Amino acid sequence: MFKRLLQIHSVTRSTKALTEKHLVQLLPFIPNIVSKVERNWKYRLLQAFTKAFKGCKPESSLSLACLRAIEEMLIPLEGQDMLLDPSDAVAVGNQITWIRELPVLLVQLGDKHPSFSKCAPLCNFITWEYDNMQQSFRDFFCRFLYKSEGEGHVEYGPFVVLPIECQELAICSLYYFSKLDSRLLSSLAYCCFRDRLDPFVLLRLIEILQSSYKAGHTQIADLISFFATLLARFRVYPERRDYVFRIKGENSNYKTYEAITSSVCSCLSQIGDDVLVLQLLQNVILHEMSQKPPLHNSCAMLRVLALLDSRPTSLSENNIINFANLMVNYLIGFAYCIPEKKDDCIIDSDLISATKYYLIPCFVLFSKSDKLLNCILNLMGASVADIRAGLPSFDGVIPAFDHSGRARAIAFVLVRMHEDMKLHKSLSACKAEIMHILHCFRHLQSNKVGLSLVERQKVQLAFDQVKTTIDRTHGWNDNMTIRIAGVV
Questions:
Q1: Which residue of 35, 361, 410, 416 has the lowest C-beta tally within 10 Å?
Q2: Which segments constitute the TEX10-like TPR repeats domain (predicted)?
Q3: Would residue 236 count as lying in a domain?
Q4: In a domain, 188, yes or no
C-alpha cells in the first residue's frame, strides 16, 4: 500500500489513469495510517498525499477522495483526538497547504460540479491560516477588474450560479473567520445585486453576518457599511416612474427588497445602542443618498434612520441640514409620481399604501426634530420661489422646469403632513414657513413668471388645497391668510 501511494512521485502520463484508480481506493485508509506509523513514514506519506491532491484534476474522483481524507485529518470526530499532532511542524505545514488550496479549488470547479463544492471541509484548527484564505476566497464570489484609475467592472465567480444548497454552505463558512475582511464583505455585497440570487440566500447571508458580528468576528463599522450598501444599491425592477403604486401582480423583486429592508432594520435594532449605530450610519446613508438612488432605495435608508433616531434627534446639526436638502427632493420626487388624473391601473388601496410607505419615515423624522421640519418647509418655499430651479430627478423622467407640477407635488406633501396627528403641534409652530409657501404659490401664478393659463390653474388648485387644509387644521383663516390669497 505504501509503495503504491509513493509512486505518485514518479508516475508517467501513460500510467497516470491507472495510478489514480488505485489511489482512490487507498486514500480512505490514509488518515488512520498516518496517525499510527513512524515519523519518517508519516512525513513521506503526507508529502505524497499533498502532491497527489495538488496535482489531481479538480473534478476527478481522486480530488473528491482527497477532500474526504483532508476532512478527516483536519476535523476530529466527536469524542476523538486530532489524528495529526498540532505541535508537529511538518504535519501542520501540510495542513496549511491543503487549506490554501481549498478556495483555489472552489474557483476551478466553477458551477459545473456542485457536489464537489459541497465537499470542501471547514477547519477551526489552524485559525490564522483559515483567516488568510479570505483574499483568495473573494474570487469565488466576485472580483473587481480595473482598466484604469476609477474605472472597472465586476466579474462574478462561481458562487452566483451554484445551486442554493452550495451557496448556503459557502456563506455559512463565513461565520468561522475570526475577523471577516471588509473587502470580502464588498464582494458579498455585489453578489447580492445579481438578479438570479435567490431571496433565501440573500436573507440567509444577512442572518450569518449578524451572527458573525454577535460572535465578535465582524466589526460593527463593516457590518453597517455592508447593510447601507445593500439598501442603497439593490435594484428593484421593473424601474418605472409609476411603479411605486404597482407592487402587486407584477413580475418584480419588490417583495424581496422589502424583506431585505425589514431584515436589515431588525439586525440594526438588535445591536443595542441605537445612538451609537446612528452615529456610525448617518454619514454612510448621507453619502449614498447624495448619489440620488431610486425612490425605493432612498425610502429604505430613511426607514433605517427613522427606526434608530430618537427625540430629541441624534442627528448632528450639519447632517440635519444635509438630510433636509436630500429629503425635500425625495418628497417632491415621490409626490410628482402620483398621476394628476385617476389611473384605472392604480387602485386606491395601492395608492394609500404606497403613500404611507414612502412618506411616513420622513414624518417620523420630522416628529423627532423640529429643526429638520423647519428646514424642509423653508426648502419647499425656496423650491417654489426659484423659477430657475429644475425638479429633482430620481429616475430621469421628471421634466426639468415643470413648475406647476412642482407646486402640485409640494401641496400633496403638505396636505399629507397635516393628516399626521403627531405633526400637528410641530406644524403649528411653523406658521411663518407655511405662509411663505402659500405666498410663493401666489407669486408663481403672476404673469411675470410666464406660466400658461393651464399651469396657473394647477398652481391655484395647489394653493387652495394647502389653504383649506391649514385653515381646517390650525384655524389660520385670519387677515394674514386672506391678504396672501389676494396677491396677484
A1: 35
A2: 97-214, 253-447
A3: no
A4: no
Which CATH number belongs to the domain containing residue 287 in this structure? Answer: 1.25.10
- Could you report the per-residue pLDDT of 220-256, keeping only the tens digit for each? 999 999 999 999 999 887 665 555 555 544 567 888 9
In degrees rounded to 5, what are phi and psi of residue 398?
Answer: -85, 125
Burial class of residue 84 in the structure, from the number of CB atoms within 10 Å of its CB (0-12 exposed, 13-18 middle, 19+ buried): buried
Write out pLDDT tens, residues 301-330: 999 999 999 989 999 999 999 999 999 999
Which of these, 395, 391, 392, 476, lies nearest to 430 by C-alpha position? 476
What b/e string do you get for 198-221 counting C-beta neighbours within 10 Å, with b at 16 or more? eeebbebbbbbbbebbeeebbeee
Mean pLDDT over 424-448 rounds to 88
Q: How many domains does the chain have?
A: 2
Instruction: For residues 108 and 253, state if they share a domain.
Output: no
**Positive or negative: CA dihedral 127, 128, 130, 131:** positive
Containing structural domain, residue 365: 242-488
| pLDDT score of 438 more than 50 | yes
What's the mean pLDDT in 184-207?
Answer: 92
Report how far residue 221's alpha carbon sits from residue 369's, in angstroms, rounded to the nearest whole number.
25
Of 84, 112, 140, the one marking the end of a domain is 112
pTM: 0.75
Question: How far is Cα 328 from Cα 260, in angstroms, rounded to an integer?
Answer: 25
What's the rounded mean pLDDT across residues 413-436?
A: 94
**Is 451 a member of any domain?**
yes
Instruction: Determine, yes or no, domain membership for 2.
Output: yes
Q: Which of the listed residues 112, 141, 157 is the one where a domain comes to its end?
A: 112
Q: What is the pLDDT of residues 56-69, one digit of tens each?
A: 888 788 888 888 88
Residue carrying C-alpha cell 425638479 = 391
Q: How far, in Å, CA of 209 to CA of 220, rounded? A: 11
Q: Is the pLDDT of residue 363 over 90?
A: yes
**How far apart, in whole angstroms, are the C-alpha atoms of residue 137 and residue 100?**
10
- The pLDDT score that the predictor gives to residue 371 is 96
